Amino acid sequence: CHHCKSRSAPAPADTPKIHYEKFWLYRHCSSVQQRDRQAQKAGQLFSGLLAVNVVFLGSAFISSMIFNKVAITLADVWILLSILKVLCLFWIIYYLLGTSQQPHAVLYRDSHAGAIWIRGSVLLFGSCSILLNVFQIGYSTILIHCKSRVEIVFPSIGILFICTQAYFLWHHSKDCIQVQHNFTRCGLMLTIATNLLLWLLAVTNDTLHVEIESQLREVEQRFAGKAPSSHPHWCNETTLCTCPNTTICKVFQKGYILLYPFNTEYCLVCCSVLYVMWKNVGRRISHHHTPHTKPKFKLQGVVFGPLLGTSAVIIGACVFMMYQIQASSLVPSRQVFVIYYSYYIVLLPLMSVGAVIGTIIHALEKRELDTLKNPTRSLDVVLLMGAALGQIGMSYFSIVALVATGPRDLLNSLALSYSVLLIFQNITQNVFVIDGLHRQRTPPGKEEDTKEEQNREAYGQRRVSVLELGQEIRKASLSYIQTYSHLSWKRRVLREISFFLVLCNIILWIMPTFGGHPLFENGMERSFYGYSTWFVIVNFGLPLGVFYRMHSVGGLLEVYVTA
Asked: Where are the bilayer-spanning segments (predicted)?
């Protein structure tokens, strides 16, 4: 191929070298580009198979622990996950010190990947996960006389893994690595599989929760002057492993229960960032696909959205504080659950109506869809749809339990209405956000100019002097400012709705994240399904629900900015 030979000729020092991928199955391809594409697909296939096998192996261990605690114990699962963590640590350190330092290793960076809000959430959830491991180490150290050494070693390795992975994702989440393609893909997939297994273990393992709940109930009943035997179903073999210092133990126990959801959130967020990095391995981004100027976040032109959203946040914060004070008592008042559900029942329909109106306005707009290949946006859509399944699934389980139980009191009716409205709100918001993410950023009236300019640049037909270029930039800036200051009513409504939904999703993210779990604490669904079954359902759906709210904030901010 003469074209390929010409490209492999010696280039100037400042010209980046293209590293085409190679794979032994496709070594006989005549075209270098074709061999590169086939090798990329093969590398993704084999690294994906590696992740699938690791996930199935870990899932088999965790399932065996659940159904046969004698043959496979929790310590065995921890040992397997510790080995995987150590392997991931070795690969991450090798990537930081070796792969990324090679010449021409990172020629391109994906501007859409690793948004500041998602990297910030990695740091936030990672910090909380480190605290969770510290509490677990402290709790196990106090009870070292009846605890295994593995219960101290596993969270210690976890702290090192979290710190290293958070540093790696903060600095390299935008990388489009161009060397050691297959080894990097396998390392990323191994790390994704490890995070998925950590999430699966956190969802299904209620051993420490049962132990802590048992001891907390016993302590509270002792302070209340009641006999511990009044709740026999909470009292089991954990009474043989009692804290010598009740105050310190209670701090560790409460901290562990409060921070537990953050660990599952951290695993999910890391998986999403790592997946985008995996898709970007070997990706070469052309210059006209890279945005030269990004729309900035500004509050101009919005009034009602911030007002309504701020009101929802303030009222939600008051409801949440009341709920936390009442729900932490030995016997939570039914009134606090009524207030909590009532707040949701008022807010969710407003959010649904706003999303429906926004979707209708999108349909009326003349902005074309952005059809450029974008792995980050594709993942955003998948994550929004997948994460919504958490709340939708919990809601359906709750609906079945509430309808099947006989009484039709106020709390039962409110919980049923809450579940139905939550399903509808998730669906309408997903449609609005996904449609908005696929709209072009270009201001109205500039589509044709931008397309013509891109075509000229692509064919090298644009020959202007520095002075003419400056005049064109000045004209484009003035045109954009004029367009922005005279936003159409459609764009104004879209910005109002987007900002309102951003604030609503923030408060709906804060409340369950920091301990507002009425679905678990009201006792209705738990008594219907049983403690262990409902624990798995809630720990599967709750982290996905929190992740959905957090991810929706990022998507809605994107919709707001592009409007």
From this structure: 45-66, 78-97, 117-140, 152-170, 182-202, 257-278, 299-325, 337-361, 381-404, 416-437, 497-516, 528-548
